[in-house]
């Protein structure tokens, strides 16, 4: 029995590790027990198991985060709090939050893709009010890309694929390329142009595969100057092949500030459990 399992079983544990899931789950359960809640939604980092027919439904599975691999997050939450629970990825939660906000502001949309570009890269998509995913949730941050001609020697930082989207544009790529954090890199540095080229390819892929009404880019790497570069690269790459909305409305920053889109999404997904 692992330390976090002992905590959830009521046994004492001396572990104070930040990588101990028990500290996290116990703290969350304690917080939510303060309230008379009717439903709960959990939007977790992944990969996670979302198939309700799987014996590992509700597990965090092959995550590289120390201590969290094969953690039955949802199962232990349900043991402590007996209410209906939605279970999805953090980026799916953000996608649903941005979709919800768009409908509240009377935008005429029925579909949306959300990318979070931070320490890693993930994406979620909503079509007609439903998150997409069949045998698993999307992993759109790990797609292969055409390399920028001035970036051919960079091997990428993804431990699985090297130079996938995450490996080429996630936050750690700044230190890998330049030896400093992204916040310290001037927006005039050509590295931002290289990132824009890769991010625009992701937007083209989502456009041609899903044909969404809107693509939202959030996360710590994203900023208004970068997205302006992305729009220009996107326009060149798409080359008028299909019609899309005005790019200022099509490729956007999140409506919910401070990376709070998933909070809105969780409220909406929890409410959905009670109304369907």
From TrEMBL:
The keyword Ribosomal protein does not apply. InterPro entries: ATPase_NBD, Carb_Metab_Reg_Kinase/Isom, ROK, ROK_cs. Its EC number is 2.7.1.4. It holds the Pfam family ROK. Its cofactor is Mg(2+). CDD domains: ASKHA_NBD_ROK_BsFRK-like. Belongs to the ROK (NagC/XylR) family. This is fructokinase. The lineage of its organism: Bacteria, Bacillati, Bacillota, Bacilli, Lactobacillales. The gene is scrK.
């Amino acid at each position: 029995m692992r330390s976090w399992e002992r905590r959830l079983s009521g046994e004492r544990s001396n572990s104070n590790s930040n990588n101990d899931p028990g500290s996290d789950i116990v703290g969350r359960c304690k917080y939510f027990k303060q309230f008379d809640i009717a439903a709960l939604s959990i939007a977790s980092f992944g990969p996670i198991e979302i198939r309700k027919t799987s014996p590992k439904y509700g597990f965090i599975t092959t995550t590289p985060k120390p201590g969290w691999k094969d953690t039955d997050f949802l199962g232990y939450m349900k043991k402590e709090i007996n209410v209906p629970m939605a279970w999805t990825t953090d980026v799916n939660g953000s996608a649903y939050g941005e979709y919800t906000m768009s409908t509240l502001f009377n935008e005429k949309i029925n579909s949306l893709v959300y990318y979070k570009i931070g320490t890693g890269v993930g994406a979620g998509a909503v079509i007609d009010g439903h998150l997409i995913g069949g045998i698993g949730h999307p992993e759109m941050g790990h797609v292969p890309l055409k390399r920028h001609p001035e970036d051919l020697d960079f091997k990428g930082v993804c431990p699985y694929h090297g130079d996938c989207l995450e490996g080429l544009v996630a936050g750690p790529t700044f230190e890998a390329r330049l030896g400093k954090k992204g916040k310290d890199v001037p927006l005039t540095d050509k590295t931002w142009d290289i990132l824009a080229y890769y991010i625009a390819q992701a937007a083209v892929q989502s456009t041609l595969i899903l044909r969404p009404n809107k693509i939202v880019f959030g996360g710590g790497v994203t900023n208004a100057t970068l997205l302006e570069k992305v729009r220009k690269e996107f326009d060149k790459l798409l080359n008028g092949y299909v019609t899309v909305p005005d790019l200022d409305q099509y490729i956007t920053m999140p409506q919910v500030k401070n990376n709070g889109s998933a909070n809105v999404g969780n409220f909406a997904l929890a409410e959905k459990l009670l109304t369907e």
